[in-house]
Amino acid sequence: MGRILTRAVLAIAALLVALVIVGLSYRAWRQHEVARILAITTPDGIDEGSFVRIGGIDQYISIRGDHRSNPVILFVHGGPGDSMVPFAQIYRSWEKYFTLVQWDQRGAGRTFGLNGTKEAPMTIDRMVRDGIDVAGYLREHLHKDKVILLAHSFGTVLGIQMVKRRPDLFAAYVGTGQVVAKAEKERILYARLMKKLESAHDEAGIRKLRTVTAPYRTEAELQVERAITSRFDPPIERNLRKTLAPVVLYAPNYSLRDIYDFSHAAAYVGGAIYPQQLLYDARKLGPKFDLPFFIFEGEADSITPPDLARAYFDSVQAPVKAFVVLNGVGHSAVLTRADAFLAELLRRVRPLAVHKN
Description:
The protein is of the alpha/beta class. The protein is 50% helix and 15% strand.
């Protein structure tokens, strides 16, 4: 009996090893195929990924584009902690018209993987100063007068402050999933969600939502509300994790350790700076911006609703400004409708940046 059990265990182990080998081989093949799609083959193209000393620590920066003469977009990702580096395939069409820079912020992606929890001070102010340093580095490294700042969700908390402090570095500001006032927003969203649940007679949802109170004491409490809210999102938003999982899994030059760090960063940085986020209110920075100012919002955004962003936008004073609603999409429009987002960038922003450069 012992020999039979031993043979059975060995057979199962061998099968598991074989499955792992097959899985890793398939992943390597898919990575190779995606790498061919992403290859920059133009003579004046750029494809760099490296750690740069920013704010006293090494932070990861990816720079990709078909033509170095194109305007530069610095993408300030959301989360906090949600790296955009593995999503290069989604933005391949952008790289014909822009040099696209993805920066893994303090507490995100490969920056988190390298530094772990030794990235102190983990403060919003330090991250804003990091972003300004990244913009300065890009100007020198890419020989540009100014760069476009594109910020998503939590990234808008950093981005607004970056362009407010150093408008001379930036050709334009583009916010999407625009955060105006964190604590105020969460109270409004809580009340709206409760009304939806009551209208749907969703007793289980009502009981679950009542276990927390906006604006929430922790990131974990916030996620209780977010999980319920997602039920009312458009399908393209609800299925985002399933859609993006293979993109991350098959990202070229993205190791399993990178995926691990990508998956665990948000929990760390989100908890570290959540109390600071509750104090943020863009309106306290003043309405005047000395650069072109744009907000592109998903019509069905249930995390940073268009009406709240619009009210803030209407108060902004800028030399050029525009508010754009992208129909049929939610908070992650920059990911789910990258094509429509690019069309608006080409129509409204690129001409201004070309002129600046």
